[in-house]
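Table S2 (text version). Query chain:
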Amino acid sequence: MSKLIPVFLAVALVIPSVATAARPNATAMTCAQAAATVAEAGAIVMSTGQHTYERFVASTQFCGRHQVTERAYAPTRDSPRCQVGYTCKSPDWLTR
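Corresponding structure-token output:
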């Protein structure tokens, strides 16, 4: 059991950094970098602040059936309101 303690400690140190790396942070990127990240991924969840995040898509092909795209903005390193891509929304007629 004592031989496994270093292994558990190593795993515990790696897990938080992997979770953080899994979601890019728009506020740490330039506007062009954030937009390119969305375009390259097609659909991606990015941090937009310390405790906020949003799913951004490059086009409607990454949305669900009957959804439409709406321009989406995020704060970036060089712009407080950068259009990084789109978000998927249900159209108004679908919710009536």
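Notes on Table S2: The two ends are 61 Å apart (CA to CA). Residues 42 and 85 are 9 Å apart (CA to CA).
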